[in-house]
Amino acid sequence: MDIQGQLVGLACSVAVSAGGAWWFLRRFSQARHLLDTPTSKIRSAAQGYVEFYGVLHDSTEPQLLGPLTNTPCLWWRYKIEEYTSNGKKRSWRTLESGSSEALLRLDDSTGSCLIDPRGAQVRPLTREVWKGSLRHPLGAAKTGWRALFSNDERYRYTEERLHAGQPLYAIGDFRSSGGGRQGLDLPAAQGAVIREWKGDFGGLLQRFDSDGNGQLDEREWQRVQLAASLEAEDRHRRQSTQPVQHHLAKPREAQPFILSCAGEDELVRQFYWQAAGGVVLCLAGALAAAWLLGINSF
């Protein structure tokens, strides 16, 4: 083997080994996060990173329809692929993909929680895959004899959905608002009100520029700050009288955000198997690199 070929092979081996190590650490860390986070009830859950078990229910959002099948659902994800052939190379190329962003409502025996699915690893129970001759399918997937004798395979369609009544395991960042649960950070709230007012500076001058010179002097600025403080307190008071609302969303830190119809045990088992695959890749890459280095030493 020439030197250039050895260098290319060595670079590929190191990349495979590093990729396997990264995959192992990622999946092992996700499994540990799931195991180390206790299951909580919505009503009594602490603010922060939590996991819930519950059942999906219809929310107040307008009903969604799967983009490929027009099936009513609570959440959808789709993909359209095209079959390409170039000599001996054959593959499916993704043409379109997307997922819905409407809020989900999870209920357990103690309360309800709204979930923002953006950024989540969603593992739904319902998944349909079929093929056809048009880029956009006409209606639902073919079944039975129609699917068996269909030769239209240029396009492949995948649609995944979550439906009301399905069980859901959810782990992510939990926050509650309303019901007097949140304390008032007056300086921060006052600053937010002032920034909002500055967005309409003309209106701000009209309210507080008493001498009409087009500027706010020190005394006028003190009036602005006092009014903003009173406005912030009033907004907090009104918010505190609202019913408590619970929300689950993507954590700010590098923690798993997972919505799955499968339970924790099944997810952890899958992550451990995937972590083991990362170990195999890492060792294979390291052995290949050591073999190439050994050839070069001779």
UniProtKB/TrEMBL annotation:
Predominant location: membrane
Q: Where in the cell is it found?
A: Membrane
Q: What Enzyme Commission number does this protein have?
A: 2.3.2.27
Give the residue spans that cross the bilayer.
7-25, 271-293
Q: How does it sit in the membrane?
A: Multi-pass membrane protein
Q: Which InterPro entries match?
A: EF_Hand_1_Ca_BS (IPR018247), MUL1-like (IPR022170)
Broad EC category: transferase
Query: Which GO cellular component term is one of those annotated?
Result: membrane
Q: Name one GO biological process term.
A: protein ubiquitination
Q: Which residues form the E3 Ubiquitin ligase MUL1-like domain?
A: 84-181
Q: Which UniProt keywords apply?
A: Membrane, Metal-binding, Transferase, Transmembrane, Transmembrane helix, Ubl conjugation pathway, Zinc, Zinc-finger
Q: Does the keyword NADP apply?
A: no
Which GO MF terms does the UniProt record name?
Answer: ubiquitin protein ligase activity; zinc ion binding
Organism domain of life: Bacteria
Instruction: Supply the name of the protein.
Output: RING-type E3 ubiquitin transferase
Species of origin? Pseudomonas peli
Q: What is the lineage of its organism?
A: Bacteria, Pseudomonadati, Pseudomonadota, Gammaproteobacteria, Pseudomonadales
